[in-house]
């Protein structure tokens, strides 16, 4: 089974950026933990700081044999109609994940162009949110 993890802008700086909000761990380091937790799942990781590249990757994974996509569009969550449209354009289920609790922060972070198009959303649970999203996607694929 293949699951794609797609991270948006500035998430390449996890472990370095605003550690009080996003923690100390880099995503490449966390990815190793995830692969260990899910040894039978092929995790495909993609990160970009460029909106169109995220759209391209959603389209690619969305028309390939992926069981699901875990998506953290980061700041583009709050601005990108194109990313919302890309999710609507594919049939592979998408789980939106945010490390921080976007509803407990600035007002502009409460708007998501992604939530309404996703199977579900997880926010505020730190990096653990990615693990929970993968759990759900595996179960979802197995009950189809
Ligand atoms: C984020 C929340 C966004 O508002 C922010 O722009 C990010 C990260 C999160 O994972 O908590 O870059 O998506």
TrEMBL record:
Positions annotated as active site in the UniProt record: 22 (proton acceptor), 98 (proton donor)
CDD domains: DHQase_II (cd00466)
PROSITE patterns linked to this entry: DEHYDROQUINASE_II
InterPro entries, per database record: DHquinase_II, DHquinase_II_CS, DHquinase_II_sf
Recorded catalytic activity of this chain's protein: 3-dehydroquinate = 3-dehydroshikimate + H2O
Oligomer and partners: Homododecamer.
Similarity section: Belongs to the type-II 3-dehydroquinase family.
Protein name in the entry: 3-dehydroquinate dehydratase
Primary gene name: aroQ
